[in-house]
Amino acid sequence: MQLELTEQQKMIRNMVREFAEKEIAPIAAELDKKEEYPTKTLEKMAALGLLGIIIPTEYGGAGLDTVAYATVIEEISRKCASTGVITSVHNSLAAWPIIKYGTDAQKKKYLPLLAKGERIGAFAGTEPNAGSDLAAMKTTAELKGNHYIMNGSKTFITSGPKAGIVIVFAVTNKAAGTKGLSAFIVENTFKGYKVGSIFEKLGIRASQTSELIFENMEVPKDNLLGKEGDGFKIALSTLDGGRIGIACQAVGIAQAALDESISYAKQREQFGQPIAKFQAIQWMIANMATRIEAARLLVYNAAYAKDKGERISKHAAMAKLFASETAMDAVIDALQIHGGYGYTKEYTVERLFRDAKITEIYEGTSEVQRMVIASSLLG
Ligand SMILES: Cc1cc2nc3c(=O)[nH]c(=O)nc-3n(C[C@H](O)[C@H](O)[C@H](O)COP(=O)(O)OP(=O)(O)OC[C@H]3O[C@@H](n4cnc5c(N)ncnc54)[C@H](O)[C@@H]3O)c2cc1C
Q1: Which of 86, 91, 96, 126 to mutate to test the pocket of ligand 1 (most atoms within 8 A of CB)?
Q2: Cα 364 to averaged position of ligand 1 atoms, centre (Å)
């Protein structure tokens, strides 16, 4: 088993770390406050190839492996979790299913647009009554001539108001249950496509999360992804990879909490000495660092398994479950180390505290991750 990054992976991580320090960190708090989408940052990231990290070079992407991708999402999220999730969804929930299941024509048409950042990618599975139970979705797509006519609505869609290419799941055969769901590549310019309400959120406020509404939307027959009835399989396999991205986001948030805690503990003095001299503070920092290292190794393990072409459901669920719980533990301790100052918007830990929680919820809650892990063990 490989426990060390390759020279290329280290080079990418260092390049993104430098970029995030220079371009993302200075504006992260402001974007969070204003709930402003990081459009300019995404343009800069596109120029560096970060919006096409996993897209093959023949379609204009960087063609990197999942481990390199993991380092990119961690380093971006370490400075801005909103930019982290936008990048993760764009790469692993929008580009990946096209890479894996798309026809040559679909790949040629859509992957270069995603790789160059000319269109932002999104994934629309969740509906008001279909969250953890995705198969309960009600959106329908009915084939009429050369088009599917899609009706329904999706909710909580990351990048919803900004996305140009959305992987949408809909029922094409109600009687067939999960085998009656299909996946489609939808463009925001299709007639009948509408962005609904944009949610005001606790954290990742710059990522813009919205409803999407489809009213007699005409989706060309050629935009069916995979075969009719493949939708559930496509959704689950895509989410397996997506969970690696969210686990990386969680590690990035946790690492930021540790960075902030170390620096604050060294400069804050009480009882005549830096609080870093108190064992109570040292133990919190030691626990944080240990859990983060373990979470990162679980992430690399899942990413490495994906690159080897193994089944990753269990690995990805374990990585996401542990990394997201690590992020929550880390931000709670980091805020405690900052005392009253951590409770104010003057300090980064306040934003980290709000950003961490979502990693235990989206792309499958922690309860769902435990279900995935248990079912892979118990059958
Ligand atoms: C900010 C944000 C961004 C998102 N981005 C996207 C996106 O881009 N695309 C997309 O499709 N979706 C997205 N989602 C939706 C997200 O994936 C869902 O919110 C999540 O899967 C949970 O679904 P739910 O909110 O309906 O909760 P529910 O499924 O209603 O769950 C409520 C509670 O019940 C628990 N529960 C449910 N079923 C079981 C069970 N069988 N056993 C034990 N406990 C159970 C859950 O774990 C949870 O604690 C996003 C959500 C948010 C908040």
Answers
A1: 126
A2: 6
The topology under which CATH files domain 232-378 is Butyryl-CoA Dehydrogenase, subunit A; domain 3 (1.20.140)
Q: How confident is the model at residue 1 (pLDDT cuts 50, 70, 90)?
A: low
363 included as an active-site residue: yes
Q: Whose CA is nearest to atom 29 of ligand 1?
A: 132
Tokens 């290329």 label which residue? 8
Closest ligand 1 atom, residue 89 Cα: 8
Mean pLDDT taken over the chain: 98
CA 111/CA 321 separation, integer angstroms:
30
Judge whether residue 119 has pLDDT over 90.
yes
Domain ranges for the chain: 7-119, 122-230, 232-378
Candidates 75, 350, 360, 363; catalytic one: 363
Ligand 1: centre distance to CA 259 (Å): 30
Flag whether pLDDT at 278 surpasses 70: yes
Q: Which atom of ligand 1 is nearest to the CA of 154?
A: 11
CB 250 within 8 A of CB 295: yes
DSSP readout, 78-133? HH-HHHHHHHHIIIIIIIHHHHHH--HHHHHHHHHHHHTTSS-EEEE--BTTBSS-
Query: In one letter, which amino acid is 290?
Result: T
The domain 122-230 is classified under which CATH number: 3.40.50.1220, 2.40.110.10, 3.40.190.10, 2.60.40.420? 2.40.110.10
pLDDT at position 2 is 65
Please state which CATH class domain 7-119 belongs to.
mainly alpha
Is the per-residue pLDDT at 174 higher than 80? yes
pLDDT confidence bin for 3, thresholds 50/70/90: confident
